[in-house]
Amino acid sequence: MALLKKRSLVLAGHGTSLALEPEFWAVLDALAVARGLSHAALIAAIDAERGARPLASACRLAALAFAASPNYR
User: Fold this and answer.
1) What pTM value is reported for the model?
2) How far apart are CA 39 and CA 23, in angstroms?
3) Are 43 and 9 in contact (CB under 8 A)?
4) pLDDT score, position 66
5) Distance CA 33, CA 45 (A)
6) Side-chain half-sphere of 37: how many Cα atoms within 13 Å?
7) What's the angle, vertex CA 1, arms to CA 62 and CA 65, rounded to 5?
8) Residue 1 clears pLDDT 70, i.e. is over it
9) Residue by residue, what is the 3-state secondary structure of the chain?
């Protein structure tokens, strides 16, 4: 079982932390690079589009969608 890795960031002017499995962080890091965004900007974009879904779940879904795309190596 993978341990969660926690990262701290600022969303909408408020400090928060997000805990995800390292494998999801690796894909999100690649997604940020592919979009030319910082990690914080990518998470902020996911946050803005997530609706009522928990942020961690929205991040996992964004990572899965990118990993399934032809743009992921």
Assistant:
1) 0.89
2) 15
3) yes
4) 96
5) 14
6) 15
7) 15
8) no
9) CCCCEEEEEEECCEEEEEEECHHHHHHHHHHHHHHCCCHHHHHHHHHHHCCCCCHHHHHHHHHHHHHHCCCCC
pLDDT in tens, 8-45: 999 889 999 999 999 999 999 999 999 999 989 999 99
Q: How far is CA 6 from CA 22, 35, 64, in A?
A: 9, 22, 19
Q: Please check the confidence at residue 4 and state whether its pLDDT lies above 90.
A: yes
How far apart (Å, rounded) are the C-alpha atoms in residues 72 and 68? 7
Residue 52 tokens read as: 């009522």
Residue 2's pLDDT is what? 58
Q: What token pair was written down for 73?
A: 């190596």
* Token pair recorded at residue 39: 């990690």
